[in-house]
Amino acid sequence: MRFLSVNVDSFLIELASLEETLALYSKLQQVKLNGIKELIPAAKTILVFFNEFETTLQKLISCIEKLEIGSSIDRQAEEVIIPIIYDGEDLSQVAELQGMLVAEVIKKHQQSIWNVAFIGFAPGFAYLTSSDHPFTDIPRLKVPRKKIPAGSLGLAGKYSGIYPKDSPGGWQLIGTTLEKMWDLDRKNPALLLPGMKVHFEDVSHRPISVSIPKQIGSTEIISTETKQLKSNHPVFKILGSGLQMLIQDEGRFHQTQVGVGRAGAMDLSAMHMVNRIVGNPIETAVIEILNGGLKVQMQDSAVIAVTGAKSQIKVKYSTGQQAIFESYQPIALDAGDEFHIQTPTAGLRNYLTVRGGFCLQPILNSYSFDSLAILGSEPLKVGDVLYQAKMNTLPIYPHAEAKNDLPKVGDVVELDLVMGPRTDWFDEKSIEQFFDQTWLVTNESNRVGLRLSGDVPLQRKITQELESEGTCTGALQIPPSGQPVLFMNDHPLTGGYPVLASVAKHHWDLVAQIPAGCRIQFRKIAELIDIESKS
């Protein structure tokens, strides 16, 4: 057992096998150590997020080392039966790779007992393994398909998996099911959860109808959501759009076991401040605007505010008069007035709200839109009308200070890094070059991550494939090109490329405001933790 640093509030536990990983994951769920917030199990690792105000890294490591985990999961696993039509377009190829007849592949797959190891790649996508080891490792396709239909059953490595929605992928397809692997109308949107047992029923030669899978037991993991009462008073009508206009709040918490990440406002401090200015609770959902451009007509009297990137707000009153306002102040407007958020002169993202908040519908206990999972309130567009909520408010705060250190195109931005968990996978000279040079933020950057480009790519000294493991916001994942991807709020929960280091939490808001064309200079503030367990 090894403990590897990830960030100031997270670390990675590396274990010898998938079985040991699942046993420890089960044990940690049972004992509920003080301060642990989230666990993301993967092939041979568990990513642990903790509250640094309730515990410390050293305390948690000490407690985990003392746990008696054994080699198997000590609990009664729930069982699910999924009907499968074995008609996949790669079935013959899989049979050839395994030296079997097609009928043998189907029989071995269908007769094996499969276990949900972890959730990754997409919400509801379960990685299934079998202790029966029916197949040798199955290679992924050399050229991934651009679109795999929802319900497709695939094989890759030692795993089986069913695609919960239409998506690209490189798994070898051997069958299909009509069962919904992901359904927001269920209390548990993900049909399969870590620790469950799965049996596949071969229905290739008889009609199949959609039904509720046979399931032993039930695990309710998502609390009932309270809908806001819809206001009768529209407040905003969108007349002009920016590049991206998203509803965001603090994000989704405690949904990682169904494959859903946090998402949420990229610049959290700007989101909190815009709510303070108008007197809303700081966690109230707001509109996140990429690179300005939003134009709105007021449908009712209200107080608004804009924070984040340095932008002016051009107001055209219904009387015909015009005025220019700076951000970080309350602005009182009446029905018929229009305002236009100008393109930022520094920074990248603005945050807009109205006193009283917006009337919205939560999904998985959050209003945030997740651009990777395509989950949450849909992006706003021209013609949309937003309604004002009737929430309790505090006094307006007119004395907020704008951020004065926001980056502009061409600037060099310094970011602090916590090294790990896979620093030792890279050549030491290459790591020195990594810190010596600056890295260009390319136009291929979004809420999933910033794609960086450097003159000297990173070189690995360990070239073997890394099994999927949990990743955090701020992670610098290094693909084979050696050009880093800096993961942001909508990043995938697990990844298959090594992470060199992670941007320290106190710089996440700054990363949210870095426009393409800036360069990043990284600074090391913490060394890699690598502790061999004595257990």
From TrEMBL:
It holds the Pfam family CT_C_D. GO terms for molecular function: ATP binding; hydrolase activity. Residues 1-192, 257-535 form the Carboxyltransferase domain. The lineage of its organism: Bacteria, Pseudomonadati, Pseudomonadota, Gammaproteobacteria, Moraxellales. SMART domains: AHS1, AHS2. Keywords: ATP-binding, Hydrolase, Nucleotide-binding. Gene3D superfamilies: 3.30.1360.40, Cyclophilin-like. This is Allophanate hydrolase.
